[in-house]
Amino acid sequence: MMAVLWSTMLLQMRKSFVRPMFRFCLLANPILNTILLYEMFRNAGEENFMAYVVLGAGLMGLWSCICFSSAGDINRERWSGTLALIFVAPASFPVIILGKIIGNTLLSLLTLVISLVTAVVLYQVPLTLASPLYFLAALVGAVTAFVVISAVIAYLLTLSRKTELYMNCIEIPLILLCGFVFPVTVLPPAVQTLSRAFSPTYAVELLRMAVWGVKDAGLFWQKYLSLAGLTALYAGLSLLLARRIDRRVRISATLEVA
Predict the structure, then answer these.
(1) 16 in a structural domain
(2) Does residue 17 form part of some domain?
(3) Radius of gyration of the chain from Cα atoms?
(4) Residue 257 falls within a domain, yes or no?
């Protein structure tokens, strides 16, 4: 299992990077987002606005890479005629999909570095990381959350013929709902309730807390526990979807293009 997971991760990184759309999301998107967010926030009166600029631009690029790669891989495999082959391969189909998602997510973390370098080079703004150990813990939790929610999306799109439409529909709404570039507290109460149902919301808040400095460790770990709980819930949902999809595919054989 580990050998399949590792080889799939490495292969997926190489395959993703050769695609022009992925390279744009990975390299150009965080640069453009950093410039845009800096111009939006520089007169906002927020003392620590660079946490919104750098983290926001990096996370937007990360989510774009996930949307157009982890979700889109199902569609690419289908149109290449290899989705059915992967599904019936001796290696487990969920393990192959997980390897693809982890490879995409780890490669997409480069967007955070690019947004940081862009902010430093273009604007010479001093950047500080007040709580590095908390930031590392938050980053691990965030990566895990993105991997798991990507698995749920990938399974949901396995039987769909409208993958490209759904990929474009889920990108911006989740960025807005999860507060990638602004706190979710500015949203209407009903929308805030919906935001709390998505694990990236807690991941973003934890990362910002670590950048600014964790003054209330209890609050940090409370949010971290909420993130872990939602991630576990999504993991269970992905396993349930994998089993239901497996049963449906074996009965109706609907993985091909037609």
Answers:
(1) no
(2) no
(3) 19
(4) no
Residues 110 and 72: their CA atoms lie apart, in Å, by 20
> Model pTM?
0.89
In terms of DSSP H, where are the helices of 70-198? 72-80, 83-87, 93-108, 110-123, 132-156, 163-177, 189-195
Residue with tokens 């939602």: 230
Position 11, amino acid: L
Range of the domain at 225: 2-9+22-252
What the block records as the tokens of 254 is: 């609907």
Q: For residue 165, give both structure tokens.
A: 């439409």
Is residue 145's pLDDT more than 80?
yes
Among 203, 210, 204, 208, smallest CA distance to 231 is for: 203
The answer on pLDDT for 258 being more than 50 is no
Tokens of 49: 């606005």
Number of Cβ atoms within 10 Å of the Cβ of 71: 23
- The stretch 243-253 carries a mean pLDDT of 77
CA–CA distance, 46 with 41 (Å, rounded to integer): 8
